[in-house]
Design a protein that fits this description.
This protein has 279 residues and is mainly beta. Helix content is 11%, strand content 47%.
Length: 279
């Protein structure tokens, strides 16, 4: 067998099952070689190749855009800001998430949840944008928050089995219930700010913020659960008036390495302190 580009072309085409017929002109043979080589490269890359109408395609390309959000059954595709959770057309596929759905909010979106007088639920929620609950009740077993979760109205209620937040949680009003008290299913939050409202439930909530620190400037924490300060939390009151922060029954643990700073003119009322416990 000869050497050079022509011999290499013939060898590759023969192994690929492409006949070296005189009727196939040079351009056609080069196109055939290109198809074989591209198919080989895509296969070798580790992604299973498939052919659709003669074109070699890589099916993994279709999931790259949403790689950070997994197992979503309802994904937000409504307005960038000002859209409401309970509008069916704001979701893909269309329809407000139900109790069996995994609802996903991509980064860059700001969603309002005005559930006045209603209760909506999802099996799980993944948030990379901003979710502002302005009324009613939102219930889920699992909430993964890499963005911003806000409770802003007195009738805002969010019930979560397990909260895992690497973003920011802000409780300004309403009630955040953390209900899963099972060992090994503790809730965690990096930055957890409370200026009002109630944090309650049987779950343990561990706060790990460093800089910026979490701040508690008002509100109540209650229930049979525990709040663990494993990072730095500042309790302060900027103005005179009612107590800064109230603990009722709920235990407060300052973990090894944790810091609770108390400053301002307010008071911390009815606390149950557990110092230097936990990891």
């Amino acid at each position: 067998m000869g050497s050079g580009p022509a011999a290499f072309l013939s060898s590759v085409l023969q192994r690929a099952g492409v006949p070296a017929r005189p009727r196939m002109n040079r351009a056609a043979r080069r196109l055939a070689l290109l198809s074989v080589v591209l198919g080989t490269l895509i296969f070798v890359s580790g992604a299973p190749a498939r052919t659709v109408e003669g074109v070699v395609a890589n099916p993994s390309k279709s999931i790259e855009a949403g790689a950070a959000l997994v197992d979503c059954t309802k994904t937000w595709d409504g307005p960038v800001s000002g859209g409401t959770w309970n509008t069916a057309a704001n979701w893909n596929p269309d329809g407000v998430p139900g109790a069996g759905d995994a609802a996903c909010l991509p980064t860059g979106f700001s969603v309002t949840a005005p559930f006045t007088g209603t209760t909506l639920s999802a099996a799980s929620i993944q948030n990379e944008g901003t979710l502002q609950v302005t009324g009613g009740t939102l219930s889920t077993s699992s909430f993964e928050n890499a963005g911003l979760l806000q409770l802003t109205a007195s009738n805002s209620n969010v019930s979560v089995g397990r909260l895992q937040s690497t973003g920011t949680v802000e409780v300004g009003a309403g009630t955040l219930s953390l209900t899963n008290g099972t060992p090994g299913q503790e809730s965690t939050a990096t930055v957890f700010n409370q200026s009002g409202g109630i944090v309650t439930g049987a779950a343990t909530l561990t706060i790990t913020s460093q800089e910026p620190t979490s701040s508690w400037t008002g509100g109540t924490q209650s229930g049979v659960g525990r709040t663990v300060v494993a990072g730095t939390v500042t309790v302060l009151k900027a103005t005179t008036g009612s107590p800064t922060f109230i603990l009722t029954q709920r235990a407060l643990t300052i973990a090894g390495g944790g810091v609770l700073r108390v400053s301002g003119v307010g008071t911390v009322t009815n606390p149950v302190f557990h110092l230097n416990q936990g990891a």
